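Quick log. Single chain, no ligands specified.
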Amino acid sequence: MCGIAVAIDWDDAGSAVRQLIAGMLHRGDVTDPLVMVGNNTAMCTRRLRIVDAANGAQPQASFDERFLVSFNGEIYNHDVLRRELEALGVRFRTQCDTEVVANVLRAWGQAGIKRLAGMYAFVAIDTATGEFLAARDPFGVKPLYLIQSPKGFLFCSEIRPLLDATDGDAVLLLPPGHLLTRDFCGRHYNLPSPTTSSAASPQELDRILSEAVRIRVPANLPVAALFSGGIDSTLVMHYARRFSPAMPGYIAVGCNAPDHLYAKHYAEETGLNLREVAVEAHCTKTLPLIETVVDTVETFEPSVIRPSLYTYLLSQRIHQDGFRVALCGEGADELFAGYSPLERAFTRPDGGGRDMQKQCLGMMHRANLQRVDRCSMQFQLEIREPFLDQTVVDYASELDESCLVRQTSNAPIGKAPLRALYDLYPSELPTCIRDRQKMLFHEGADGDVEESGWLDLFETSLSDADLHDGQREFADFAIATKEELIYMRMLAARMDVSRIPHLRGRLRLDVPRAA
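-> predicted structure:
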């Protein structure tokens, strides 16, 4: 897990890369040596040492020194790939997963990307030809941004360092599941589109999810978890404690935290070491923290900023307690219809559930996954998402739509396959958690935004006239509320938002109107 910086065919490449690295020192605990490839190509990494900490300095080279790779993320099947490559005669110098990536690309080319199971963003350079290959994992767990000039490319793991290092150029993002070369950008991954639908099997999902968690629990480091007492985080905790029994769970607790009661119940029933992080979000003294969070997550979207406040504080505490790795439950709601728009979509007769699901999955890289990456890496913490394991994604994608949502007399209730797992372990997984209604992360930590007084922070800070002025000032960004405007002004004070075109595409679901 790192922050990477790569300049390709860039004037004064070494200085540009050093400046990029200086802007994201928070993403790691050591800066690896800068490596030049010719006169105008440079690579450097701010590395969080996790896999083969002593020998994992980047860029890593392929066995024949042909490819150099700067890599951010974790490859969970790197041991399997290593053995397969060794059988082909490849010899390794280290135990780190970045070297595996370099040799996968050298042995199998672009097709090798499909063999990588994990979260990643990387840039690989062919030292013989000067060509490069950049790629990002299927859902965009790990970020990769770039500036393209008429002559070259500048890559970085965060937005602001690119803005600070250049004048005028737009900062682009490489979309999830895409690869980029000098003259091509296209998908290397598409969501599964099964031709047949499967019935739910709690036993099969139990096996798959347990393994997805197992491979994300590090063998040589202590691990923690973000724990809300909700269906998803409780399942992650349940499986993870099989492999790391002493791992603690961290919960954000505000003055009206609905999650707290459920989390305490689970902790008391199972002996979990529950660590509470106090949050006071609904008062004027919170505004400076919000400003810090907006700067950290590099967006102004309320759906990202609100939960980021809690993720930021949780990550800070987990880091203070000495952890470098933590688990979370992100991805479960998108895959198993946990959000209310998905619950409704999967019960509509027009069969629009899968289309709505694709929208949700397609926005994750700019929403929950961006929140998790920025808040955790701000404190040199790597957070892993077992629900986004490809085996779990494939299982959820192959389910018949009727398996995801249960219709009740009041309303549809999603995540039926996950709720069924609780019935396999009645003495370990409380039924009160199984039967919970979905709550957004920030609402579970501190109550409903409308009832809690959260929105009053913004209503009292700006007049209606201020809002109208702000809407004209930021006309390209479809500002609709005072909350959005305050976040936008905070963000614009730190970076030139006009140079970040993807911010203009808002995180809003296209929900079909009822007939």
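The longest strand covers residues 67-75.
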